[in-house]
Amino acid sequence: MKHGGRGRRGWKKLHLGVDRSGAIVAHTLTDGNADDVPTGLKLIDAVDGDISSVTGDGAYDTIAIYEAAAARGATVVVPATITLAVSRRKPRASLRDRTIRRVNQVGRRRWKKESGYHRQARMENAFFRYKSIIGDRLRARHSKAQDAEVLIGCNILNRMTELGRPASFAIGP
Are 125 and 95 in contact (CB under 8 A)? Predict the structure, then answer.
C-alpha cells in the first residue's frame, strides 16, 4: 500500500466487578490476550469497602485469587477445575482445598447450589446490559479515550439500574 497498512487491530476485553444488586463496582479494560487472574486481582483491589464474596468461573481457580479474597475477608465461590486435586501447598491452599473436598463429597451440581454460584448470573446480566445498551464495540481509537468510554458506559448502566430498580417490601404477617 502507498501509505502503509491499516494499523494493528486487536481485541479488548472488558472485565467487570458487580455487587449483589447488579451495580458495577469495578471495571478494567485489557488487551485480548491478557490473563484473567492478574486482572481479577486488580478488580478485587479496585473495590472500595467490604467484599463478602468473589464469584467467578474456573479461570479464577487459583491460590492467588483465594489469598486476595481472604485478605479482604471475602469467601471465594469458584468451581474447582476438573482435575480437582488437593494441593500439597499447606496452608496457602487450604481454602481452595476445602472447596475441592466439598465438591468431591456432594458433587459439582449440589456444590453450586450450596455455595451460591448461581449469583454469577448477575455478572452475566451486567455484560448483557452493557452490550445491548452501550454496544459491543468501542468507538474511541486511543486507549485513554477507550478507558473513558468504558467508565462512562459503566456509570450510565449503574444510573439506569438505580433508577429502574423496583422498591419491594414484604406485606402481611
Answer: no
Domain-located, residue 6 = no
* H helices present in the chain, as ranges: 36-46, 63-71, 94-106, 108-115, 120-129, 143-164
CA 47 – CA 126 distance, rounded (Å): 16
Number of structural domains (the chain) is: 1
Give 28's strand partners.
15
| 15 within 8 A of 43, measured Cβ to Cβ | yes
Quick check: is 5 in a domain?
no
Each residue of 96-126: pLDDT tens digit?
778 888 888 888 888 888 888 877 787 888 8
Of residues 119, 131, 137, the one with CA closest to residue 157: 131
Expressed as residue numbers, the domain containing 34 is: 12-164
Alpha-carbon torsion (13, 19, 21, 27), positive or negative: negative
Grid cell in block for residue 74: 471475602
With respect to residue 79, please indicate whether it lies within any of the assigned structural domains: yes
Helix (H) or strand (E) holding 54: strand 53-55
pLDDT digits (tens, 9 = 90+) for 38-82: 999 999 999 988 898 888 888 888 888 988 998 998 888 888 776
Inside any domain, residue 7: no
CB 22, CB 126: distance < 8 Å: yes
